[in-house]
Amino acid sequence: MADVQTALAASQPAGPKASVANALATVDTILAELTKRLLTLEGQYLVLKNAVAAETQRVQDFNPQWIDRTVKELSQRVCDANPNFSFINQRFRDFELALRDIRNLAAFRDSEYCKQHPLAKASGPAFHPLKAKACTESDIRSPWVAFWTRELQMGVNYHRKCWELCYVPQILYNEGKLREGTRGLGFACGEEPLPSLFAKYGVEVVATDLEPARAEAQGWVKTNQHLSSFAKLRRRDICPDESRLEKIEGRYLDMNAIPADLHGQFDFCWSVCSLEHLGSIANGLNFIENSMLTLKPGGVSVHTLEFNINDGDTVDNWPTVLFQKSNLLDVAERLKAKGFSVYDFDFDTGQGILDGFVDLPPFFEQQYPLHNSHAHLKLSIDGFVCTSFGFIAKKPEA
Question: Measuring CA to CA, which residue among 305, 251, 260 is closest to residue 278?
Answer without folding.
Answer: 305
